[in-house]
Design a protein that fits this description.
Blueprint (H helix, E strand, L loop, with lengths): L4 H16 L4 H12 L4 E2 H8 L3 H13 L3 E4 L8 E4 L3 H33 L4 H26 L2 H10 L12
Antiparallel strand pairs: 1-3, 2-3
Pfam families: MarR_2
Keywords: DNA-binding, Transcription, Transcription regulation
Protein name: HTH-type transcriptional regulator
């Protein structure tokens, strides 16, 4: 696949953003390429397009598959795996959010629950226990909100997103 300057800039920026999100730059670039690619690509095609070593591409593809961002397919008569990204941006965003929740947010809630239980029986000062409890309750509230919204039909989720900040019209005024 021939990359235009705009495509190269997209891939480079996605790689930069990936490194800020805690994802290896080349892994994010592989994802960006597959996101743009009109057809699934073989690993050797990815190597050529991005000028990356085969081992780097293989490792990156495994990581992207672990994140459920990339899937494989095969063409009849071709032994090579072809890789493709989630095409629908809404689905892509949902997968990223859900994976980050499972890998980062949920374990933090579990750790905070454990710490709160420990604090009940050790010498943790009351004001620290209160702060821990507030932290846990707030994170649980955000997690419940996310899980409630994630269960809604896609159309309802899209309507809420389109409504955006206008929702404040329906909320009581503060102050």
């Amino acid at each position: 696949m021939k990359l235009t300057p705009a495509m190269q800039d997209f891939i480079l920026h996605w790689g930069e953003m990936g490194s800020k999100w805690g994802v290896n730059r080349s892994v994010a670039q592989i994802h960006a390429l597959l996101h743009l690619a009109p057809e699934p690509m073989a690993a050797d095609e990815i190597c050529a397009a991005l000028n990356l070593a085969r081992s780097n591409v293989s490792t990156g593809l495994k990581e992207l598959q672990g994140w459920k961002l990339v899937s494989t397919s095969r063409d009849l008569g071709d032994r090579r795996d072809k890789f493709h990204s989630i095409r629908d941006m809404f689905d892509l965003a949902q997968v990223v959010i859900e994976e980050r929740r499972n890998r980062e947010f949920a374990p933090t809630i579990a750790a905070l629950e454990k710490v709160a239980e420990e604090a009940k029986t050790d010498q943790t000062p009351p004001h620290i226990k209160t702060r821990m409890a507030e932290t846990l309750q707030t994170m649980q509230m955000f997690d419940k909100w996310y899980t409630d919204v994630a269960r809604l039909p896609r159309g309802v989720q899209m309507a809420a997103l389109k409504l955006g900040g206008q929702i404040v019209r329906f909320l009581p005024k503060s102050g």
